[in-house]
Amino acid sequence: MASSDRDTSTICLFDVDGTLTPFRQSIKPHVDEFLHELRKKVLVGLVGGSDFVKIAEQMNGQVDILKRFDYVFAENGLVAFKGTTQIGQQNLRKFVGDEVLQKLINFALRYMSDLVLPRKRGIFIEFRSSMINICPVGRSCSQEERDEFAKFDEHGVRDKFVEALRQAFPTEGLVFAIGGQISIDVFPEGWDKRNSLQYLEKDNIKTIHFFGDKTGKGGNDYEIFEDPRTIGHKVTDPEDTLRQLKELYYS
Q1: Quick one: which of 177, 165, 160 has its CA closest to 214?
Q2: Nearest in space to 161 (alpha carbons), one of 92, 109, 213, 224
Q3: Are 125 and 116 within 8 A, CB to CB?
């Protein structure tokens, strides 16, 4: 997208779940249209913990997404696209090794087997190219069951799980971060959303506005939100994201 008034030294970089979309749901048309208009002013990018296919589904189009955003960073930026060109990818299995991964998966499954929750469904461990996603309720749960677990998690189910993981794997160089409504992301130290910033720096982008909802310590937006290279904006939901963008660019 070319515009004589567009500032290509500035980017608005967005988390997906809870920031641009309701958790694991599709982007609303009015939010999508707002981002289209915003892109006439500055660069616009996504950085999510989910894999590329899931992010594309939430943005309503696997092919179209790479044309509608200047940058798309999936799996915390470990799978990176600039426009329609893939510019980076990391491999968790090669980096960590199968021995550590199997110990981690076995520990997580044992821990979850003792949890008593309102519901349990299926897909408790999802192995992605650059991270492992652990889900106590099971990723095959319905939206209603997802919301139910999120409410139940106010008792600290995931917080306690993360602490147990940290105690069990203190020297493996792994990070355990709460993400979205229902899961925990596991990845090597340094493989958080800050990984996306290297590509923006290479392209001489000077101002990086990051918008995210899980910005507290232990959340998967925390590191990039606190990074001195970004201007962090904590949001509560997609409508709050739009409100803050209007104040920033249209007031």
Answers
A1: 177
A2: 109
A3: no
164 by Cβ neighbours in 10 Å (0-12 / 13-18 / 19+) ranks as middle
Those residues whose C-beta lies under 8 Å from the C-beta of residue 165, and which sit 6 or more positions away, are: 104, 107, 108, 111, 174, 176, 184, 186
Burial class (CB in 10 A: 0-12, 13-18, 19+), 113: exposed
70 is catalytic: no
The answer to whether residue 98 is catalytic is: no
Domains and CATH numbers, the chain: 7-90+193-249 (3.40.50.1000), 92-188 (3.30.1240.20)
End-to-end CA distance of the chain: 24
Binding residues: 15, 17, 24, 128, 139, 146, 183, 185, 213, 225, 227, 230
pLDDT at 60: 86
Annotated binding site for alpha-D-mannose 1-phosphate: 24, 128, 139, 146, 183, 185
Helix (H), strand (E), coil (C) string for 43-83:
EEEEECCCCHHHHHHHCCCCCCHHHHCCEEEEHHHCEEEEC
One of 5, 7, 17, 159 is an active-site residue; which one?
17
**134-161 tens-digit pLDDT:** 999 999 999 999 999 999 999 999 999 9
* Nearest to 47, CA basis, from 70, 22, 23: 70
Orientation of helix 157-168 relative to helix 98-113, angle to 10°: 140
**Cα 222 → chain centroid:** 11
> In whole angstroms, what separates CA 108 from the centre of its chain?
21
pTM value is 0.83
